[in-house]
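Q: My labmate handed me this sequence with no annotations at all. I'd like to see what the chain might look like in three dimensions before we decide whether it's worth expressing. Could you predict it?
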Amino acid sequence: MNFNKILLWVNLFFLQSYLVRFSIGPVPTNLQEVLIGLNVVAFGWMLLKEKRFLRTVKDIPKHWVLLGFVVLTVLSFVIVRPPVNVDFIRAVRFLLFAVLLTFMFVQTFRTDMERRHALFVAGMGAIFFGIFSAIYNLAGQNVAYDYRLQGPLDSAVYLSYYLTPFFLFFVIDFFQNMEKRANIFHAILLGILILFTRSMGSIVVSVLLLCLYFFKRSDLRFLRSKAVKTGLGIVLALVLGMAFYVKILPSFTTTNTSLGERDEIWATSMYLLKDPKNLMFGVGYGQFQTQYAANVDAVLGHKPLDYIILQPHNIFLLFVFQYGLLGVAFLLFCMYKAAQQFLHAGKKDELRVIVGIMLFYFFLHGLIDTPFFKNDLLILLVLLMELGTGNLLIKQGKKA
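A: Here is what I predict for the chain of 400 residues:
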């Protein structure tokens, strides 16, 4: 039995295992780091046993997305010299384990069938965590003031960000192979959970991406009929109208809204970017929260809605504050490669289509929310960026 694959499946299923925290001696850690550490040992043993170690080392330059994150982080540390504080250490550790898990994923699962199955396992883990979160909230734990569904230690937006890519996975996987009827059941479960998070970003972006898939990628004739297209258009219009009513309209009468908070975040972000050094090189890896809290009062002229803001709620601002203009260039190139691979995918490149849609979710929802870089969502983002840029996806049944 391949212990390395088993550990990878366990890590993918329990992506939120970082919530189980403890210390080993004086070092604080969590279950996710321990599981990935064990996975590294099993992966190394597999490489030695199969005499693949040197070949795997030679493959490292092919992983340009992983190398990009590592190089940009090192450059940020060398140039900006951020303080080695708790925020910095946490951010670096999440990136390190995200890179390790992604590298083991693409080197272990060598065909698109294996990778599709691995994503299925991760999707089942998302369903499990969503149901667990619902039970946890119903038991009176970590209940939001507006009763939105949220995780044991995280917000509703975080939970929806985790669930929605796998909702898209199950929906598209069903339409690619309608014999997999269980997938529509999995998608319905996740859809219900997402609705209870009341994350309009997740709802609107998922509907937009499914419309993109149905209009451009699906080969099912009935999806191309005028009636179905009209129905999808009506659904999209209703969702956009609901988003306007729930999120935008209240901002006309009060500033105490999520949109009002974003206005404060973006205004402070623009102020920070007036410093040429911040624009060119960023504020330091994992340092946005500290910089925001230190400057927001002066920028707004009054107390903000919240001082504890982990990230700037925009993916371009996120990368510029982490890595500077070089980081934005890296992000734009990844977006270009992902779009290129999605649009040029052949009819048999089903996994490219699925991964492309899942990655576009991060890019589009990332325009207004960025709850990653300091939690397990970074693993999912890095994995999808590595797969979604296309250079490592493998034709059905062929070995790498």
